[in-house]
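Write out the 3D structure for:
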Amino acid sequence: MWGDKSVKFLAAAIVFAATSPAAAPPAEAPDHFVQRFYDLYTPMSASGWARAIRSQALWDFLDPGLARMLKADADAQAGSPNDIVGLDFDPFLSAQDPWHKYEAGKASKAGTGYTVRVHGVAKGKRRPAPSLVVDVAPRDGHWVIRDFHYPDGDDLVADLRQNQKDRDHAKPNRRVKRSDFLGEN
C-alpha cells in the first residue's frame, strides 16, 4: 500500500516539521512592552480613553480586533451621550479615578504569550495588589495586547462583547403618545 519512497518522504516531512524553529519571539521583554504602553497612555488618559483610542500610536500596541471593538464601543457611547451604552470606566486603567502612574510588574508565561501584572502608583508608593493584568501575545515579530483582566474577574474583551450584544438587542426608544401619557383613549 505505501511504497518505500512514500514512507521515507513522510518520515522526512515529520522530522523537518519537528526540528524547524518556531517563529522567533519578540526581542523586547513583555513587561517592557506593557510599560511602554502605560508610559504612552497614562498622560493621554486625562482626555478620556474614548478620545485616546483614536490615536494611531495607541493602536500600534493593541491587537487589531481589540482596537476595533474599543473604537466601536467609543463610537456607540459618543452617539448616545445621555445613556450608558458603552464602557463607563477607563478600560486600560481599570478605574474611574486612576492612579498617578502605572508600573508593569511580573510577566508570566500563558499559552503562546504572557500575562503582565500592572500596579497603580500614588505618591511614589506602588500598590501591592495589581490594578489589572494585561494579556500580550506575539504577532509579526512584536507584542500586541490581547486583553485586560480586572480584579473582579471580568475582562475587557468579554465586557466589549456584552456591550455590543446589549446594543444589538436593545429596543428602539418608543415615543410616548400624548394620549398614553394622559391616559386618554
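The chain has one domain: 25-166.
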